Amino acid sequence: xxxxxxxxxxxxxxxxxxxxxxxxxxxxxxxxxxxxxxxxxxxxxxxxxxxxxxxxxxxxxxxxxxxxxxxxxxxxxxxxxxxxxxxxxxxxxxxxxxxxxxxxxxxxxxxxxxxxxxxxxxxxxxxxxxxxxxxxxxxxxxxxxxxxxxxxxxxxxxxxxxxxxxxxxxxxxxxxxxxxxxxxxxxxxxxxxxxxxxxxxxxxxxxxxxxxxxxxxxxxxxxxxxxxxxxxxxxxxxxxxxxxxxxxxxxxxxxxxxxxxxxxxxxxxxxxxxxxxxxxxxxxxxxxxxxxxxxxxxxxxxxxxxxxxxxxxxxxxxxxxxxxxxxxxxxxxxxxxxxxxxxxxxxxxxxxxxxxxxxxxxxxxxxxxxxxxxxxxxxxxxxxxxxxxxxx
Length: 392
Hints:
By secondary structure, the chain is α+β, with helices and mostly antiparallel strands.
């Protein structure tokens, strides 16, 4: 296996593992889960500012819900079922559950758009031959979101999502992405007239954002067309990640209605979207894109403090506390090894910055900062904290 493969990096960096007796199920180690949670919090804060309300829905739902939504016909063979007094299944996606929340209470056209977001844990019984590290698993979480809206809301909501996706990909180091419009599949729900409108609306919304999507005939979801966004990594590889889907079918199947401006009941449209898709898969893409050397703000530990000898242990402890008080994720490397060996260990774990504390640093209340590329600088402790805090 290539050293740049995310599976090798996951082992070397002590981030996660998958066992033979639990294929497709990820065990996140402390360092890996730290990265996972930071990505989750990062996208959560973005979505909160854009007006999404976070929800949480059950893992097990009745078989008849999946029948009514259409998921059983499409995904039934890959769903994990539980037999008991009532036939249940682990959810392969969260959308029918979000409709259940929408249905609780009388909704008015004045309430729309309503935006729900969930880091929904999903399970799909993928064939064993298709499993591939974090890229394809049987249990995963998505940055899932659904917008209940009217027809005239579609351009603004799609634009809102494209703006979010462009901002996130850029901040994570992916400057280029491609977009494709996936159109009606052979097996689908809804009339041709409905599909004509949905495909035209989604394509127009993309073009209004300055995008020129290519066409992927027959690759849409069974309930509607979708825009699929593929980012390009530093090696030139393309990864399909973000998606926004226009759904004119599922809300009606699950009895979702609102009171329209004329006083009659109307069925809302539903927009499905995700920026990352599977969060675990996105971690894998980031690891390979950065060769394991994650950006400073996303690294499990940002600073490794290393006293040269035990004589500096007290000052090293003070440095660690000062860094932690400033919100910097800090680890101490004070094992009974040579400094050169500890530098190698820090490099192997891809900690961005090493803070070396010797006798001179202790006496002058300074530290020597060593970067990943070997560059060093000597700074007063307060100046070092200020400089590192600006990188977050």
